[in-house]
Fold:
Amino acid sequence: MVKPVNTSTSQQEPGKGPVDKAMEVLEALARAGGPQRLGEIARRTGLTKPTVHRHLRTLADCGFAQPAEGGAYRAGPRLLGLAAAALDSGPDLRLARPVLNDLRRRTGQLAHYAVPAGTEAVHLELSEPAGEYRMSISPGGRTPLHTSAVGLAMLSALPVPEADAVLAELLLDGALPAPTPATLTDPGALRAELARTVRRGYAVDDEYDEPDVRSVAAPVLDAQGRVVGAIGVSGLTFALDDANVAVFGPMVRAAARAVSTGLGGSAAHLGLVAGGMTDGGRA
Amino acid sequence: MVKPVNTSTSQQEPGKGPVDKAMEVLEALARAGGPQRLGEIARRTGLTKPTVHRHLRTLADCGFAQPAEGGAYRAGPRLLGLAAAALDSGPDLRLARPVLNDLRRRTGQLAHYAVPAGTEAVHLELSEPAGEYRMSISPGGRTPLHTSAVGLAMLSALPVPEADAVLAELLLDGALPAPTPATLTDPGALRAELARTVRRGYAVDDEYDEPDVRSVAAPVLDAQGRVVGAIGVSGLTFALDDANVAVFGPMVRAAARAVSTGLGGSAAHLGLVAGGMTDGGRA
DNA sequence: ATGAACGTTCCGGAAAACGGAACGCGGTGG
DNA sequence: CCACCGCGTTCCGTTTTCCGGAACGTTCAT
Structure:
């Protein structure tokens, strides 16, 4: 009974299981936009060719992928069904959709809804204006939490210890990623920006993630006051000048609060965290 | 070179792999609407409790599920990201979305887009009218191909041998499923209805799937003339009387054609299959 | 013709998934 | 008060699958 067991029970990170790999293949497939070749998937995911091949065939066998012309693969119907069901699973997106469309109409800019995923923000729903200019943001896309307005909004609404943990995790991979020269890379400056965000009730992204693009965003909270997502408005810098930011900021704040109340959030949390006028609360 | 091949390559159905099971757990999770308990998932999927437990934890570890209050689980952020990306992956849905909204506005009824998945139609996108009445149709939901207008539309646009194969597969599980007394269960009657569908260019569902609900639908084809989906309009029987069916039918036909041309479909296929006025073509 | 890249198949070693059985727990009803 | 039940969880030996290096056939562009 000396308990030889496995001497390395504590670390279960390194060796990822088959489902995770299959999922990565699926993600690569879905994120590609169009049909995708095997080699390309192997390159993107970092998996070996045989592994990708096997998983791809397994996925195709159960309907999550389907062969396309030229030996390529594309997302299968079962994945689309799962996707539609998943996006409908939570009440947040259903509530957010009409709010986004309203925001887009009133601002003439791109309105979007994002949820937190580890140290990143995942963009779920976009409501695009008629204009044809294309931004790097797309459905399913991710940005680090500190480089986007929605990310900053979510960070600002996190309890302090959690926010610190996220920040620490972001710093683990060397310095903070900086997609543009304007990105906030200094933890101190970031904290100051978060404090300003809490004070005014909405976050501002001044070309932190993409040149010539600014955004404003506000967090969406559930009934328990936890962050479930954020609503943002993005536009080119000349369209989102300081005056417009001052107008759109309160609008996204109101929009986010509308979704939050729809989720059953009591006025208490919302006043404290998203409202930003009562100096009380929190410590 | 006698081509010994693998003698048992044909049957790989029986033993489902881990990824498939994990996917079923995910589907159960996503389709549930709200948070879901472990036992409930085990019951729905037919998997044993330990298996579900392990998969659920694995999925939670890589972000596809997340624990909710009361020991329940809900869809995780990574699944939502994958879902958003998947729904954006094909050009068909992007094209269909505005068309659906236009259809809903002009008909005042529920407009939807579905894709084929085996012997079923998977509903991906709904554009719901202001009214509050609820139908059984929901995002990610499925209906057998022969019990819905979108299904009949897709069946009618399939090459004859493929359509026959689907029909045979449907008949494998005993008789054709019949959700309502009006459902077409006789293969002969079904074939006749498909012929009528091809002739007029749109399919009609006269309470085949749900009592008091009628629908019209037309198939969407890709550049090669293959079926990729269908656009339908559904409403209560009193709202979709014969006169309205005669009006809405050509509207969904035009809508489906618009999406098809957007996919690069040449006028040739569309005229033959979806147009329905040129008496030429198809034997 | 030569070379490179691609998709595919093969194989032995390694690492999971599997489910029956058992455990601790909370609620219910005798 | 104590069976009884259902739940979520853990354990374990057996079975199955996964894994990726290496090699093969093919298809292009050089």
Remarks:
- Chain B is about 45% helix and 15% strand.
